[in-house]
Amino acid sequence: MSTSSSNTAENLDSGQIIAESPSYWSSVRSNLRNDPVTVTFSLILLMLLLSAIFADVIAPLDPYKTSMIKRLKPVGTEGFLLGTDELGRDMLTRLIYGGRLSLLMGITPVVAALFFGGLLGLTAGFIGGKVNMSIMRVMDVFYAFPSVLLAIAISGALGAGIFNAIISLTIVFIPPIARVTESVTTQIRALDYVEAARASGANSLTIIRVHIISNVAGPVFVYSTSLISVSIILSSGLSFLGLGTEPPQPEWGLMLNTLRQSIYVNPYVAALPGVMIFLTSLSFNMMSDGLRSAMDIKL
Amino acid sequence: MSSTIIKVQKLKKYFPIKGGILNQTTAEVQAVDAINFAVSRGETLGIVGESGCGKSTTARLLMQLIEQDDGEIIFDGYAVGKRNGIGTREMRKRMQMVFQDSYSSLNPRLPVESSIAFGPIVHGLKKRVAQKKARDLLIKVGLNPDLFSRRYPHELSGGQRQRVNIARALALDPEVLILDEAVSALDKSVEAQVLNLLMDLKEEFKLTFIFISHDLNVVHYISDRVLVMYLGQVVEIGDVSAVYSNPKHPYTRALISAMPSMNPEKRTEAVPLSGDPPNPISPPSGCRFRTRCPFSEDICALKEPALIQNDVEKRQSSACHMGDPHSGHSKNNLKGLPQ
Hints:
The structure holds two protein chains of two kinds. Chain A has twelve helices and no strands. By secondary structure, chain A is mainly α. Chain B is an alpha/beta fold. In chain B, strand 4 and strand 5 (about 80) form a beta hairpin. The interface between A and B is large, with 35 and 46 residues.
């Protein structure tokens, strides 16, 4: 009986004709290929990134060259495709250069916060109990402040400057990332495959490395991507208040601030930095949304 | 057959119920209360009982996934986790477990091959060797490694996933396999295939099974001996044929009479149990079954019955005053239960 039963079992399963199944990442790729919106916005982001990196090559003029005669020229003026600002500097050039700082201020704090917040969240979620309590209640203290207010307060205390702005934004983003990581980790820690891994004699570090991180990474990564747009807006806000970038450096938030006074003279030019911020954060949001659905495992 | 591989002595696990402002322990669920049993090398011990009677807690205690409050587990002559005993890690290498939920017991982000190879890699096997072993095990559980090794759990059916789980449990070359409701979630036809597979594997790898189930028919089919649990305690243990044909404990009899049978002659008219099991937070005094037992007497509320051997030949023991001639119960005798 024993041999015959194992034979039927074998025939049953190997007899099913199933094509070689695609790997996880190739299925993610094919999901993305069928999603033109995500692809479009990803391309826009790529263009923004490239133009910021190669600003020296692309930008038509010097971003610091002022001219008293050519102040506040409208969009489409000859020689100044997007007009000039209140000091006669070429807007197109400054917008391209501005992408450097704005993207830096958008991405760096999130990456830093992803590291620290992820670590805290994993620790709290995996160990649980009192460790979880103490970490998460400290996070809650930070969470209690509105993020803008917290960023301004920390920046104000540390003083103006790009580096300080990045530090303050990092501190602002650690609690939400830690919270998301903690909740996903807590959920996964209770699943049977983590139990099974423990039952096979693995230590906690190995279990976190092999079983937890791979399952936590997806949702946390997608959530963090959506924070990049928030970070750009917050850093623009800091610059707007004079706490981030200092003039004459080109940065979208700062440009928006200085052009504010000219909004009745030349509204289109004054709005351009805002359009860039909007476009960038929209692209990050759309891309993270698309990534979320593409990386979802169908149950 | 005679050598004992696992001996459980007075194993106890109470789960605290926290409440109040200071999060203090307000009550305890007596999930497993001082149970004793032994498993011989090469046998299949079935564990049956209602939901919440402590079957799964017992399994997790055996694997040391949760720590006992009291009592000890002796694995192959060595106390688990004690000085001069056997370490948890070493014990887990020799005893593995298959979980009930075939989906949540596999990491959705890992191909099944990696899931199976994980244990051996943890125990120091080279990655390539472990993967080769995983592929060999897939063949053993009836899955073609060319088709399945790179697949993810969500691409498999329930039966296929449970086969992968079995392969994963076998990857460390264990001597004992705990099957915690391992086939309960499967379709009947798939369940039969997996049961046959398990019996083949048992023979091939010389395994000892602890088979936990609430399905009495399945336990009858696969087990050599059966252990009946009620509210965290062992009420009866013995050879499967003896327990099924001549139960000594009224709870066992109620369970068996509630078992659906295809044979009309085996159908019983006996009244099955009524009511729910009592609250394990505050179980009844004396015999825990007395609130639902048709033969309950005063003595049952006063004295807790010990597990007493009723039949040496069939290794049958039960924890009932009616099986103990000195208990003072009016219906006590060694012949069997009153009708």
